[in-house]
Amino acid sequence: MTATEVSPDPRPTRPSPLRRLLPGPPGAAGARGSTLLRHLVLAVLAGTAVVLLTNQLAPYQNLQVARVCAFLCVTAGYTVLVGLNGQLSLGHGALMATGAYTVALMQQGFDERAVQGRWILPLSLLLAVVVTAAAGLVIGLAAARLRGPYLAGVTLAVATLVPAITTIFTDVFNGEQGLRFPMETPPAFLGAYFQPERWLAWVALLAALLTMLLMANLVRSRFGRSLRAVRDDEVAARLAGIHVARNQVLAFVVSAACAGLGGGVYAVLTATVAPGKFSLDLSLFLLMAIVIGGLGSLAGAVWGAILLVALQDLPSLITETFTLPSGLAQRLEGNLALAVFGLILIVVMLAAPGGLHGAARALTARLRARRRAARR
Amino acid sequence: MHPTARRVLAAAAGLALLVGASACANDEQQAAENVPGVTDTEVVIGTHQPLTGPAAPGYSRISAATKAYFEHVNSKGGVNGRKIVYKVMDDGYNPANTDNVVRKLVLDDKVFALLGGLGTPTHTNVLEFVKAQKVPDLFVSSGSRNWNQPDKYPTTFGWQPDYTVEGKILATFVKQQFPGAKVCHFGQNDDFGRDSLVGVEKVLGPVAAKQTYTTTNQQVGPAIGALKAAGCQVVISASIPGFTALAMGQAAGQGFKAQWVVSNVGADYTTLAKQLGDKKVILEGLIADNYLPMSNDPADPWIQAFTKIHQQYNAANPIDGNAVYGYSMAYTFVQALLTAGKDLTREKLVEAVRKGGFTGPGLTPFRYSADVHAGYSGVRMNKVTGGVQSYFGPTWTTDDGDGEVKEFSGTPTAPPADAIPTT
User: Fold this and answer.
1) Residue A183: which pLDDT band, with cuts at 50, 70 and 90?
2) Signal peptide span per the entry (chain A) (predicted)?
3) Where are the alpha helices (DSSP H) in B54-140?
4) The pLDDT value given to residue A30
């Protein structure tokens, strides 16, 4: 923060009501400006931009936008837990699965009873959030008593346990084959030729914006400050009157709820769930994504979500572009995504420890400084 | 003007332009466009295959054969003047990847139809999508009865005998050859295993013991131990090749001597022998079923024709049951494409299969009709003797309902010139 920014505020003590609607100058928010309002405006702007973008895109690209949004729900909550609160979880893929299966069972149940209506999807997603938050509470209670590698171990067990449950209770979860439910279709008033993928992108976008909005406010709230205090020094936080264990459990519940929503949306995109979609790999990919994106910042979560989707298509892209000997191509297709992810992780950690977001911020800061120097 | 304000204004103007350009008419335009994947010179089709992962042993060679057959057809001028472009995508037998690659094929690559998407758990996951997109989904490489639901999934068709048909015939054979034996069932923990068990129990009544495996878990020891403990004398197995090899290897390791009677999908001798390596002697006496010519039968005219194509376009791979499967299915597809006619549409292709009447290498007729979307109607038993898998006994046909298991006396047709169908 520069010295000019802390100069006394020249505004009158009671600003006009309209003034409050505008986003304040950067850094001026906090006690005076409304953080919520600023984030709302940002969210609406971002939402409008993406909606306009989806109008231009072909179906498959819209689906990719939808996937990014679904993953963004997860990475946003996850980065709050890992980056801000300092708790490591390797079980977020399993929490996604919890949300996804809740949505699938709800949607299937309604379909079998021939219940129809636009309210079914929001209700299913809401229930997915509630159920996953409950699961997060249970894991969080254990997590608050554990540190570092022990916590990683427990959450790792969760990551492998949840897919196993689906094959044990085959009657409910239908084993590895998973559950199917009717595809979400665009509402009739949008016209007969409305692209279904665009509708899916909108649904996912709404979920992602909601998550980002809530997380952005949470990060800047009193709770967000406690999260950071606990991460940095538990003893100091306790001395400052923060209930450390409660704070950690709450962080777990919040990030689990986000993962549940993301998982639910992810299920809606394909109208199916199967344990193979939520393997241990996914949990590891999620962690790598937020680390590469930039740990603890919501912008980093966006980078992470984009990366997760981009890498899904990488193997087929490479094998299509280059004609490789069939044996090599086959070996690549299976392992390429993991290898590339690992490689990016190493490079980013060496070159930009703050992740992609940190690197981008450093770059803009340097450009701005150069321009300022040129102006003088 | 302040630079920031100018930038905001520029951005707003840009957005306004975007809105203007995005007249929603482009959707209608797309809908009214020509048939996806079809031009005057080409027809593009796609598939999802396990080129890696637990089902890759053996199955990864099916698409190689299919591709080789299309190359052969293309070299003779294609079908109705159109060359077949066959896009193969790897899904690693993981439903999450199947979702992704099938959407890419249909939405991005704009394939005309899907052909032979492989696997019960994988393909089940794309049924809703395929239905919504009205894509012809021909000849799914799996014997699940899911593909035979014309009311629910009007564009999806099976090809091989379904697992219930197979289960009924295997059980009938076991009843005749091993009267009074304790019969057990070992199956994959999805529709593959379940449909097979339904067929077996229709004929035999409840089996003495049943165990399942999941493809993500290589530990089949406990399941095999349970079958041994139950005193099983015959094990009817609905397993993919990797797990047939694992299960029989475990059984041999545990000193569990039962007669294994294995579904055709997991019983190709060449594939199993390669999996088991120097332990392949345990395959001696293995009983299985099949409905296509045996890959090791050089006297069969179809095998002769396919071998010729194989040597030219696919010589790097062995000609085994998987290759014969790939060739035979591709042959049926070319028949369907021919029947659909010169003015190709998705509706016409679906209609062509519903009309049925296809011939080819298979030992029994297809069941396709206006309200049946199931493929081959029966199988014939085979046995491994001295490291050679060969047919014995009669060919049987039945349906997936309560129809009886009947002996079938018809003979397969001879292949046409170049093994390319003419009608």
Assistant:
1) confident
2) none
3) 56-59, 62-75, 95-103, 120-124, 127-133
4) 46
pLDDT band at A315 (very low <50, low <70, confident <90, very high): low
Confidence (pTM): 0.82
Q: What is the pLDDT of residues B314-373, one digit of tens each?
A: 888 888 889 999 999 999 999 999 999 899 999 999 999 999 889 889 999 999 998 999
Same domain? B194 vs B184: yes
Query: Helix (H, G, I), strand (E, B), or coil: what is residue B88?
Result: strand
A34 touches chain B (CB under 8 A): no
Residue B374 to residues B138, B148, B354, B356, B363, Cα–Cα distance (Å): 11, 5, 10, 10, 15
The residue with tokens 């949300």 is A99
Q: What is the ipTM of this complex?
A: 0.79
Interface of B with A in 46-75 (CB under 8 A): 51-53, 56, 60, 64
Residues B45 and B120 placed together within one structural domain of the fold: yes
> Is B96 touching A (CB cutoff 8 A)?
yes
How confident is the model over A21-32, as a mean pLDDT? 46
Secondary structure of residue A181 in the 3-state scheme: coil
Please name the member of B30, B108, B125 whose beta carbon is closest to the beta carbon of A178.
B125
Residues of A in contact with B94 (CB under 8 A): 276-277, 279
Residue B94 touches partner A, C-beta closer than 8 Å: yes
In the numeric block, which tokens belong to residue A229?
Answer: 């205090």
Of A48, A195, A335, the CB nearest to B27: A195
Strands B287-290 and B378-385: antiparallel
Share of chain A above pLDDT 70, in %: 85
Partners of A63 on chain B (C-beta within 8 Å) are: 103, 107
pLDDT in tens, A227-249: 999 888 889 999 988 898 899 99
Structural domain total, chain B: 2
Nearest residue in chain A measured CA to CA from B314: A326
Q: In chain B, whose CA is at the least distance from the CA of A310?
A: B100
Q: Where are the domains of chain A?
A: 36-180+195-278
A113: Cβ–Cβ under 8 A, 6 or more apart, which residues? none
CA distance B370 to chain A (A): 24
The confidence band for A55, taking pLDDT boundaries of 50, 70 and 90, is: confident
B95–A178 CB contact, under 8 Å? yes
Report the CATH number at residue B278.
3.40.50.2300
At B96 the pLDDT is: 79
Q: Give me the residues of A, 132-191, that contact B with CB < 8 A.
A: 163, 167, 170, 174-178, 180-183, 185, 191
Q: Which candidate in A42, A67, A172, A176 is best for mutational testing of the B interface (most B CBs within 10 A)? A: A176
Beta pairing partners, A180: A272
Within a domain: B254: yes
CB contact under 8 A, B189 and A193: no
Closest CB from A56, A176, A183 relative to B132: A183
How far, in Å, CA of B106 to CA of A68, rounded? 20
What's the whole-number average pLDDT of chain A?
Answer: 83
**In one letter, which amino acid is A313?**
D
Quick one: B218 and B323 in the same domain?
A: no
Identify the residue whose tokens are 């790897």: B90
Q: Does B313 touch chain A (CB under 8 A)?
A: no
**Pair (B216, B273) in one structural domain:** yes
Same domain, B276 and B302: no
Candidates B66, B86, B124, partner chain A, best to mutate (most A CBs within 10 A):
B124
B197 touches chain A (CB under 8 A): no
**Under 8 Å CB-to-CB from B183, ≥6 apart: which residues?**
B171, B174, B200, B204, B207, B208, B232, B233, B234, B235, B236
Domain that holds residue B359: 38-161+295-376
CA distance B218 to chain A (A): 13
